Amino acid sequence: MNSRECIEKLSPHLFWDMDKAQLDLESHSCQLIQRVLEYGTFEDWRLIRSFYGLDRIVADCKKLRTLDPACLSYICLISHTNKEDYRCYQFNKGNPIFPKTRKTLAEQLETY
Question: Are 64 and 86 in contact (CB under 8 A)?
Answer without folding.
Answer: yes
